[in-house]
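Session log. Operator J.P. requested a structure for one protein chain; no other inputs attached. Running the standard single-chain path with token output.
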Amino acid sequence: MQGIASVLSPITGLKWSDDPDDLQRYGIDWTHLWSPAPCAVVWPVTVEQVRAVVRAAATNNLALVPSGGRTGLSGGAVAANGELIVSLEKMNRVLDFNAVERTLKVEAGTVLQVIQEAAAAQGLQYPIDLAARGSCTIGGNIATNAGGIRVLRYGNTREWVVGLTVVTAQGELLELNRGLIKNSSGYDLRHLMIGSEGTLGIVVGAELQLTEPLPVSQVMLLALPDFKSVLTAFVQLRATLRLQAYEFLTDVALARVVQHGAAEPFDERHPYYVVAEFDDNEDAALQVFEQGVEGGWIADGALSTSDDHQRKFWHLRESISESIAPLKPYKNDISLRIGQLPAFLAEAQALFAERYPDFEVIWFGHIGDGNLHISIIRPAHWSEQAFAAHCAAATKELAACIQRHGGSISAEHGIGLLKRDYLDSTRSVAEIAAMRAIKTALDPQGLLNPGKVFAPDRHQ
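Structure written below.
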């Protein structure tokens, strides 16, 4: 390969850097488990610049790592082997609002919160919502089919993407679906790209469906005696109320949030907590609460009476990751059918207690859609290397447990580098072979985000 300057300098107007500080900053995501070692970072501002970069990379057999907000938790945006990082953060414009279709066209680097605010300015909403809304980008959301806190009501990112603009591994431009509601004209490559983690093409733009604003809501905070009660409360609330979100956390998670500055919500600590948001219906909510107390599946609770109450209740759930971030936890993001959750959780908690008694394990997540987040805190007397090795061993056992219960090793964070060795716990041999064949067909040189999802796939 030519020197990186000779590869990139001919591209008109392209900003790039090989400064060590830039390489360090852009070469990792929130996992912080790999040492970044990219060759350079580029910041295209137009689709044509992205195409030019991809073509130059193909000519020079140079691997590419697409990069957005780098808030991922699976190593999907890590560049540790001399790759060229294609940062899309400067392609961050809201391009168009269509009042008839109620759609928003945006560039891939647009931050989720900016999209939400643009929708709100039109009296509508983009309903995908994540705790990282202020820093994650729509390109990254699309790459992992992000879900967040309102999947129970609105589904994942996939349901809200009506069009995609993608640059292929050959530098060609694909305009996928073009905003059509009905389009039965062969394979829907749009959905193939969604969730592909930048391994099949580089998403440079999207057309997003908007919807009506959320109705006036209330939030209930519940304290529960056991995990079975978490699901009992879910079933009862879902039958009685129109739920917008249903989230849970354990007492261990709450302890970290309180240590981080939040107020204790109740006089006593309880094993499990639920934050439930629903369309305003106070009488029905209180009726379920009373039934729960009488039935023994609700230990305590509070109903919001103001916006401030709602913010405080949600803070207990949404600040978990922030409260433990300085400890650099090892994270797993898993998914199961809701009915399988009690049996899985009992087996997984017993596994951690027996095999990894030194671990502080924090469970929380989007229980209404079967998505659990598991964060493991490094014991103070352990080295980072020993901790990483033990966590990898724990994840291998966890993956086997997930497989027994018919779940997925990744719910919404993607496979990336972190989970690729456990892909076969979720996908069959035939499925993985089909996925590899698709990868080879669309990226024959293996240059797009190599080593992610599968084992290293670049041709030698």
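Operator note: The mean pLDDT is 94.
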